[in-house]
Amino acid sequence: MNNTQGPNRAARSSSIHDMVLLALFTAIIFLMAYTPIGLIDLPLIKATILHVPVIIGAILLGPRKGAFLGGMFGLTSLIKNTMAPSALSFAFSPFIPVPGTQSGSLWALVICFVPRILVGLVSGLVYRGLTRLLGKKAWSMTFAAVAAAIIGAFFMNTGLVMGLIYLLFKDAYATMKDIPVSAVQAAILGVVAANGIPEAIAAAILVPAVSMPLQKALRRGAAQ
User: Fold this and answer.
1) Would you say residue 122 has pLDDT above 60?
2) How many other C-beta atoms can be found within 10 angstroms of the C-beta atom of residue 106?
3) If both were cysteines, with which of 16, 54, 140, 184 could 134 make a disulfide (CB 3.0 to 4.6 Å apart)?
4) Which among 215, 216, 166 is positioned nearest to 190, based on CA atoms?
5) Are residues 55 and 153 in contact, defined by beta-carbon separation less than 8 angstroms?
6) Phi, then psi, of 40 in degrees rounded to 5
7) For residues 167 and 159, is the Cβ–Cβ distance under 8 A?
8) What is this structure's pTM?
9) CB 113, CB 45: distance < 8 Å
10) 126-163 tens-digit pLDDT
11) How far apart (Å, rounded) are the C-alpha atoms in residues 146 and 204?
């Protein structure tokens, strides 16, 4: 009986530990979302580094919990774009009228949530896959964290969000910007470059700088 109680107790302790970390990262996301740190109001769009705690959480807790944190990121974006809208908030909240119409669009929920959920899911999978492939040496874990950060920030967050805006709201975007529809693609690519590259660089620096020491501290705590 003692032999079975030991593993069960360890499993329960690990589960509680993960839930505490998940709650902590969720709180960090909400805190950042409602301070100038997390969502920066720009004339066109809300720039963000909220993907950073999502990616760090995915590295520490795995892709499934990373997807949950991404969903929390999407929820904060929905609330912020509804309560304090910018020019592009119609693409993130169904409660904001689409330019040229009198109502919002449910497609905004797809843009608001799907890329952000994928930030956590894909970043966690990239990190897990690379560490399994390259081993868990310090350099390989750092490399995996940087790769997860860049893919999560640039491709899943900025790239996918703006790509979906182009696919789903091309005409509305042209109306909002007062440009021809034929010019929307270039405008979208400009936003991807202007926002996505700095956000990816910030993530590539911050994610390994935070996640690597945290992993060491968590491993030491688990061993004690």
Assistant:
1) yes
2) 7
3) 140
4) 166
5) yes
6) -100, 120
7) no
8) 0.91
9) no
10) 999 999 999 999 999 999 999 999 999 999 999 999 99
11) 5
Q: What is the pLDDT of residue 7?
A: 62
Question: Would you state the structure tokens that stand for residue 6, as one six-digit string?
Answer: 């030991």
CA of residue 3 relative to chain centroid, distance: 41
Q: Give the orientation angle of helix 160-177 with respect to helix 107-134, to 10 degrees.
A: 150
CA Rg value for the chain? 19
pLDDT tens readout for residues 167-205: 999 999 999 999 999 999 999 999 999 889 988 998 999
Contact 164, 115 (CB under 8 A): yes
Amino acid at 37: I
What's residue 39's pLDDT? 62
Residue with tokens 């949950």: 68
First to last CA, the chain: 23
From CA 211, how far away is CA 145, in angstroms rounded? 8
Helix H or strand E encompassing 78? helix 63-83
What does the DSSP assignment read for 121-190?
A: HHHHHHHHHHHHHH-S-HHHHHHHHHHHHHIIIIIIIIIHHHHHHHHHHHHHHHHHHT--GGGHHHHHHH
- Contact between 117 and 107 under an 8 Å Cβ cutoff? The reply is no
